[in-house]
Amino acid sequence: MSTTPEPLLRITPDMLLSRKVDFERRMGRVPPVTIATLALLALIFVAEIRMGALASKEAIIAMGALARERVVAGEYWRLLTAPWLHGGTEHLVGNGIALYILGMVCEAAFGRAQLVVLYVLSGLGGSLVSMLVSAGPSVGASGAIFGLQGAAIVLLRRERDRLLVRDRRVGVVLLIWAIYTIAGGLTDPFIDNGAHIGGALGGALIALRLRPVVLSPMPAEEAAVVRRWLWLVIALGAYAIVGWLRR
Do residues 226 and 114 lie in contact, with contact meaning Cβ atoms separated by under 8 Å? Predict the structure, then answer.
């Protein structure tokens, strides 16, 4: 029997990468919840145009924009409706592109149910900070989208040893979008950077409580908790619709 020690096995980068989950292969090119959200945003924008909501400050407020004095007066539903409105075609298209990319990322990472909770609550967080720093009016889905970006950053940083992201160009595109959106908030009175900050922080905090289903299935007890959060989101949506109809 030989007593010669076996040579040490050299660990190569390829061997380490093989243990990671290829995140991009897990992403569906047609994420259903993200596509449905984009379609709803487009339909609402068509309604804005038909109802003349873009004609003036008063018109966009009447449509459901966030305005501090109206919220303080009791119209809290505006915190929920403002993220579904847009101030123009460029505003909608820019947000739509970013939402498609980030929605595809977060839908693959967290699953459909957790994406809905993340998106709606991030938008609400953006509206709350927006109201604190600006009198308004302000509209736009960018607060909710910044929430998705904050959640994606938390996920990729926290799970960097388990997730393989091969194409870094997506991050560059999203960085350009973020800069463009923040710059828009400095020039467009309907776009508020407070919503961007609030949405990003809200999304990052929410992501700390979400399970990345791309890495492992969700246990039954956690799924039950997510369902309860979904019911809360549905209740918030119903409240917003009733408030809007009674405005």
Answer: yes
